[in-house]
Amino acid sequence: MTMAIKTPTVLALDFDGVLCNGLSEYFQTAWRTYSQFWQISDEIPLNDLMEKFYRLRPVIEIGWEMPLLIRALILGIEEDTIFQEWQAIAEKIVIQENLDPWKIGACLDNTRDEWIVKDLEGWLSLHQFYPGVVEKLKELMVSEVKPIIITTKEGRFARSLLHKVGVNLPEADIIGKESKRPKYETLKILLAKLGARTTIWFIEDRLKTLLSIQKHPDLQEVELFLADWGYNTQKERNSVAQYPSIHLLSSAQFCQDFSKWKFGGKKE
């Protein structure tokens, strides 16, 4: 991939972990689910448990793992061990306690859905936009660069959160969970829809998502950025230099003009 392209025509953005910090909601939903699934009193847990959960959020790949992470912490498993061996730890807990990941996931989804029905404003209030991103979005909306959001969050919630801060993107430009497509497939559809002259830059906080995108030859012209302020680890951020097509992006760079963005990593 060359560095001839200086600006995108489309800036595609993940939502949670790039635009919005939903850690408080993740923890509260996970704790409520844990309380139901393990049948304990629904008391507010100690702050150190919450802070540990925040730090360990990058290990989570699927929703049902969130209450399981709380279980691991309550069982006394050390943070460093969880960072290094999370998948093995999760599997061990599931087997030892005869758990059904699907049932945990269903409980998590139901817990969130019930909360949203009863107290939508309270649920939305647990999401905070990262510094500078709202201003950047508003700047993009009056520029020649088209912002498009690609998220695993339901589009209606991303839309509601953006509306609260005065960012009203067209409905078609927020592609959420309801699309039921992996992000690489959405990018392919965008390229086909917008035409050959389209230049897409995509910002994501999950390295695995970016690595899955770079495997597709027909997406090789999409510039990929890992948001270093999102739900990822220092180890993942350090590893970006190994991947020529992925660039590490800081929040300070994100808020600047595109000409100031630095393309890190090795280049062929």
Describe the structure.
The chain is 47% helix and 11% strand. The radius of gyration is 19 Å and the shape is globular. Helix 10 links the parallel strand 6 (200-204) and strand 7. It has 2 domains: 10-19 and 130-260, HAD superfamily/HAD-like (Rossmann fold), CATH 3.40.50.1000; 23-125, no CATH class. It contains 12 helices and 8 strands. The strands form 2 sheets. A 6-stranded parallel beta sheet has the order 5-4-1-6-7-8, sandwiched between helices. It has 268 residues and is α/β, with parallel strands linked by helices. The longest helix is centred in the first third of the chain and has 18 residues, at 79-96. One of its GO terms (cellular component) is cytosol. This is Haloacid dehalogenase-like hydrolase. One of its GO terms (molecular function) is phosphoglycolate phosphatase activity. It holds the Pfam family Hydrolase. It comes from Trichodesmium erythraeum (strain IMS101).
